[in-house]
Amino acid sequence: MGEPVDDDAALVQRCLSGDADALRAFVSRFHGLVFSLCCRMLGDRHDAEDVSQEVFLRAVRHLAQWDSSRPLRPWLLTIAANRCRTRLSRRTRQPTPVEESQSWSVEPRSSTDLAEELQLGIAQLRPDYRACFVLFYQQELSIEEIARSLDCPTGTVKTWLHRARKELAEHLKHRGVVDEDGYELHHL
Amino acid sequence: MNCTTFETWLEESVGERDRTLPSSAAAHLSGCPACRARWAAEVQLDRAVALWQRAPQPASEAAKSVVVAVLADRNSVVLPAPRSSASAPRRGVLWSAVACGIAALAVTAWHRPTPDRTAPALTDVPADTLPVSDSVVALWTDVGRTSQSVAEETLHSLEEFTALSARSLPTVPVTEPASVPAAPAWRSLSEPIGERVNTAFGFLGDVLPNPAAG
After folding, report:
1. Per-residue H/E/C for A26-48
2. More confident call, B124 vs A161
3. At B38, is the pLDDT very low, low, confident or very high (cuts 50, 70, 90)?
4. Do A162 and B11 touch (CB under 8 A)?
5. Buried (b) or exposed (e) across A136-163, using 16+ Cβ within 10 A?
């Protein structure tokens, strides 16, 4: 094993020089990040694993194109988000496993249920909205970083994020997760 | 603030992670049940998002397989694997396709009418002076040197190339080498590529086993 590398740029340099240990470290360092994004966006573990592998293959092939003056994480997340969008676009009109698991009963919800319901709602968002939402709330990228990642204006990202939130709020309401009392002013 | 400007504010402030209701909006909400409900839904959504962010993520054991794939991919780029014997048939098919393509292009290019009516007809040009003939000869020589299986496959492909043989090409009988018992379909290509192509193809008759001779 080579020396551990804390700095992303140094790690990338070692990867570019063909250091196999550096490549292992690179995957190990960022796999969780990429996999969690893929899980959130795709809602399916197997798809997430497939796409995660695609992301790393693509990232390693194009490592030389990474601008070392910028952080590596958003660059990698950009690749991941785009691969997920591509995968989602191939799924058109096909029911996802998440959608198949839906039931329409309205029952008292625990906190876990609320998070799961939100994930169900996210799975029904269109890919652009979903990418914005996950990048903003899970990966905590800024609006500007998301705009760069998705190659669109910041105003568009705001609009997509706003619409995503609106659709998700409607979803929670429709699913009975948010009770009528939630709409009273005293809850503000 | 009214309902429209409240919705605009919601959109404009969506990038703020801890947004608070401005006093003007609060004043509007106090008298507008619809916007109150809208804001309450936003607050509920924020609560759901907070829970969703803290929800445990499914762990993946696939990191190792990703490493393997990445290393294999890198090696495939930097150090191409040596060609195995199993790839020979594919190379043969490729050679055949290239040969057929070049032959088709040669015939098509020759047969295409040219706007220059003062130029001599191609049929008047000696086959030796057609540059494509040399290319075809060189190509077939290479094919013949590659392997007999390639040659067989190529010949088979040419015989199936009915579109080419069906073209209105002049069909001048060609004197065949004695070692070739029957005229294959590609012989109808004939002039003007004629003799040079036949010379090139002729070696196939020499190198292939003669079915009539057993």
Report:
1. HHHHHHHHHHHHHHHHHCCHHHH
2. A161
3. confident
4. yes
5. bbbbebebebbbbbbeeeeebbbbbbbb
Which of B30, B49, B77 has the CB atom closest to A137's CB atom? B49
* Token pair belonging to A66: 């990474």
Spatial distance between the Cα atoms of A129 and A81, rounded to a whole number of angstroms? 11
Closest CB to B70: pick one of A35, A56, A158. Answer: A56
The answer to whether the CB atoms of A57 and B69 lie below 8 A apart is yes
* Shortest Cα distance, chain B CAs vs residue A68, angstroms: 21
Cβ pair A164, A125 in contact under 8 A: yes
Task: Report the candidate in B153, B156, B149, B206 with the shortest Cα–Cα distance to residue B185.
Answer: B156
pLDDT of residue A102: 40
Distances (CA, A) of B181 to B202, B209, B213: 12, 11, 9
Average pLDDT over residues A38-59: 88
* pTM recorded for the entire structure: 0.53
Mean pLDDT of B168-195: 51
3-state class (DSSP) for residue A69: coil
C-beta of residue A151 within 8 angstroms of C-beta of residue A79:
no
pLDDT confidence of residue A124: 87
Q: Tokens 């998301």 sit at which residue?
A: A146
Residue A157 has pLDDT above 90, yes or no: yes
